[in-house]
Structure prediction request, 474 residues.
Amino acid sequence: METPDNETFRDSIGTVTKEGKRAWVFPKKPNGKFYKYRKYVSYVLLIFLLVSPFIKVNGNQFLMFNVLERRFNIFGFPFWPQDFYLFVISMLIGVIFIALFTVAFGRIFCGWICPQTIFMEMVFRRIEFWIEGDRGKQMRLAKQPWNAEKIRKKGLKLIIFLAISFIIANVFLAYLIGSDKLLSYIKSGPTEHLSTLVSLIIFTAVFYFVFAWFREQVCIIACPYGRLQGTLLDNKSIVVAYDHKRGEAENGRKKFKKNEDREALGFGDCIDCKQCVNVCPTGIDIRNGTQLECVNCTACIDECDHIMESVNLPKGLIRYASEEEIENKATFKLTPRMKGYAAVLVILVGLLTGMLFLRNDIEATVLRLPGQLYEHKDNNIISNVFTYKLVNKTTHDYNDVTLKLMSHKGTLKIVATRDTLFVPSQGLAEGTLFVEINNDALSGDRNKIEIGVYKDNDLIETTTANFLGPRSFK
Prediction:
């Protein structure tokens, strides 16, 4: 029976030689049921990724992550710096959701949804297969000297990869600065926006480096998610697994021979063809068990099923299964850990939903003017000066907005040429105001007052501020 050298494959990376050099992976072109499904999912996600920055919902970009200006749009909902807590909760929901899926279904996110895998396997790798051919042809091309054929194929691949990387960089920039701004930069010409052009060139170079050279090393070395598998997975997690009990049987693997009774001889169904290894995009042998490098891409499942069909053996030698299912034929059940993650996810989703319903279109902030004390006026009136800021989170203007004192009997005067305020769409109105309250209505030297924001006599937002008065010696 052939047994894997656990010390070797667990303590080293398959894409690095013993001398520490890069061991280039030349995967065989995958084909099969799961690969077909992955193509459908990938095309949908690619379209979504490419068009999302250019879709508008109520005038807002569908997805935008403007880190520099701290403005985010998620599914058309704008989030300002004042809404950062909502953004944090949204990110926590994403992390818990991925953790829950990893506990239940392993690294399925990496194989089916991750942009790195989708672009690498469904765009760049397919172009490479088209230009250079399948695994054998690519290996021969890599070994042959630089002749006309190699220069032509490598040059064509370089040009196409750079073009696609440039397109991805533009889309990435649209997510960061907004599609309207990006399109205006393109129309006005690159010389007018040299800093943006430099950023675009850097992004293009990074994407080209990742997809043309670094490749699977991103998943193996750079991405921290793969290392989380060790803490998130257990023997009940469903992963891409090799059924070693069926594949090895009593006497291990054996090359296929026609008309041989493998079962009677005690050999497993694995015919040691190594096609599951050849098709793996990270260069591992799935028969060694769950490994850090495995991204659950299902290429080995399709390839093994094809081989099993060819030799008239049952499919499913490599399949989605848990270790417990393989060992004990146990069915999938929700574990306490999965229920715990699910409960936290439900609570966070409920919290976010409630906060979104309570979120106002106008965010008001009123603060005392720094360094200013109260002023004692006639008739026992105490006056404080404040600064106000009204942030409009919507895509329509707010006219005739007024501020009123709600908590105390007194007057509120805005320092402006008109009694009402104008708050532009996705903009702000700011200025100075005075609040005057009779000293008899105050309790002590520090009082909390409540100010309402009204639009056409409808209360749309409330805020509070500290009002200073004389210290009481009663």
Remarks:
- The chain is about 45% helix and 20% strand.
- The first strand starts at residue 56 and ends at 57.
- The chain has a mean pLDDT of 89.
